[in-house]
Structures
1.
Amino acid sequence: MFTRAGGARPEKVSVRVPAGHPADGAVTVPIPGRAADITDRLRLVSLTPATPSVPSRPAPGR
């Protein structure tokens, strides 16, 4: 979640981080809207990790 200015309503954006991405590697966060509207008042206000998907495994003996 991010805000465009202090006191603004938080907006949601989803970011996909590939498996194996290094913990200290940069991640691009796409901010929707016009680039001209993005200022130094923009703040990331929360991060919510999603549960990773686990590939299904075939049953033993198949």
Note: The radius of gyration is 17 Å.
2.
Amino acid sequence: MHTFQTMRLLLPALALCALAQTAAAQTQTVCSITNLSPGWVVIDQRQCLCCGATGATRRTQYTIRNISSLATGATVQVCSLNNLPPGWVVIDLTNCLCCGAEGATRKTKWTIKNIGGLATGATAQVCALNNLPAGWVIIDLTNCLCCGAEGAPRRTKWTIKKISGLPAGTRVQVCSLENIPSGWATISQQQCLCCGAEGSTRTRWTIKKL
């Protein structure tokens, strides 16, 4: 009886310990990011007398995290866009005293989001076209005080849509022919005040699933 009660009291503590061990296993400190395994991204870095540094010459030490098991909708802040897993896109960025910045020189930190598991027809807004997932196309864009813009100049935010899995005969209007999946054909184009146009017109294409 006492053993059962003791185990019942210990279970929450054991669960927390397991979670802590899992989190630690997903974060590592390394001296090089060459040949990172898939799913590992850089979440911080610093200059230090480490990684074999001698004298006053400092070297870079990186903190990396494995995000391959994070669910759709998860967000992570990273210091580099290298090695992003499929399905992760940039949704925001900021210039800050972060990612190893020293003195008044700020560096860029990006917020990335996992949209890989979203359903056909879903849309998302992104601040960069790095790592645009297969089957997603650009359907709109705007120039705004967003995506890390601080006053002028403004920056571009794109709206993307997942069209993979749509039935034959479906038509979609796009602002770019980049990343069009196989099996889709361009059937028309027009000049319009669309796709972020301000003053002069831009081209918008209509594509169709064959």
Note: The radius of gyration is 23 Å.
